[in-house]
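Hey everyone, long-time lurker, first post.

I ran two proteins through the pipeline my lab uses and got sequence/structure pairs for each. Pasting them in order. The first:
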Amino acid sequence: MNLNNELAPPAESSGRNEEDILLLKRIGDRDELALTSLYDKYSKILYSLTMRILKSVDDAEGIIHDIFLEVWNKPNDYQSNKGSFFSWLMNMTRNRSLTRKRSRSMHKQSHMAELNSLSFHTETHHGGASSSSLIDEYRDSVLGAINKLNGEEQQVLILAYYEGYSQSEIGRIVNLPIDVIKFRIDDALRTISSQLQRRS
């Protein structure tokens, strides 16, 4: 598949942007068929863009949903003096995709830092030892503690700390309320911490 062709704009036709503006006006009058027309016209190329950046079906579908929801709720946000509607859509999609990518990276780094801190908390019990063999031993202990968790706790912990998903995203993935997800993560961390303390 040629991604450059896939991301190329729809074939130009006279008045294409004018047609888009008319559809936006109809959306402003709450015409759902107008939104469907814009979705059919642009969703495939926007989806290709998000997939190219994020390589995640769930993320791509979520962003496309949010983009067209915003078009529905705020059709007047598009300003024709700043370029074509298609360019505006592409820029908005690209920006949100990049923001999502950075967010996932930050979540993952934060979660991993928190999880890794569990593997070093017993360092003070060993005279501040920091040899690579001791570090490896602590990390093995963390992995061993994770393996002792029940399946539900393991699932949310892996999604949060190794995949970088936020608690709300995990809730959507496993179809559970966010307070349940939060409880499972907290309970799993308490269990791991307790096991490591017993070890020290």
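...and the second, right after it:
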Amino acid sequence: MKRLLVAAALLGAVSASAMAIELPAEIAKRGSIKVALVPNYPPMEFRDPATNTLSGFDIDFGEAIGRKLGIKIEWQETSFDQFMPSVSTGRVDAILSGFTDYASRHETATFIDYLRTGPHFFVQQSRASEFKDMAAFCGKKVGASRRTMFPTMINAWSEKSCGSTPVVFVGTDGSADARTQLKQGRIDAAVQGNETLPSIMDLEPGAYTPVGTPIAQQFIGIAIPVKEKALQQAMLEAVDALIADGSYKTLLAKWKLTDNALEKATINAGQ
């Protein structure tokens, strides 16, 4: 009797693991999900300098999602400015590219959040002694990409923390430009998502030092057209399945993102 019960339990487990997640008919027929990305944001997505192949956490994660869904991920490179138009017009089925979940984007896309992040101050290591704590940024020039919400968040932190000596914000043309200005001494510190700092410090050993903790909490998500409820549900189930089976944890460790883990996927958690 015991053997029969064990056999039945094993059979049930196999059936559950093999159970297909339902995809929209059009995508299932096509056999692929068209996913937009901009591969210039290590460790999330980038082109390996040695091979020119797509690499990064999002690439590995996206391919793992594809395997869970039994479907091919068709990566489509675009520009950041074309992300939302591509989703709203149906040129792509989803965006998986270190894309931050903001409430202002929810009219166009629903976000399946899979990573926690936050804007983090960092300085040149050669000047680390000047910035023992975050209060040292008050009155200093701090740069961050003007295309993000970081300027608003930095100003909010400054108003709360700096009183009569606020941070002097300097808008940049992206994180690479912020680091260039930092090296040139045009700014005293820079801010970018904490998920990127380990990768940057690996690429430029001894160049930078993070200071303090993230000044706000944000979420990175897979953006899917609002009307595509079936695809949203399929993606949600696939992400949760990867979290449950340990694949997510393994990929986070590979890309030094363990501190950015979520225990469960969320939907539109961004503010």
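Reply from user beta_strand_b:
Welcome! Quick read of the second one: The two ends are 55 Å apart (CA to CA). The chain has two domains: 22-117+218-267, 119-210.
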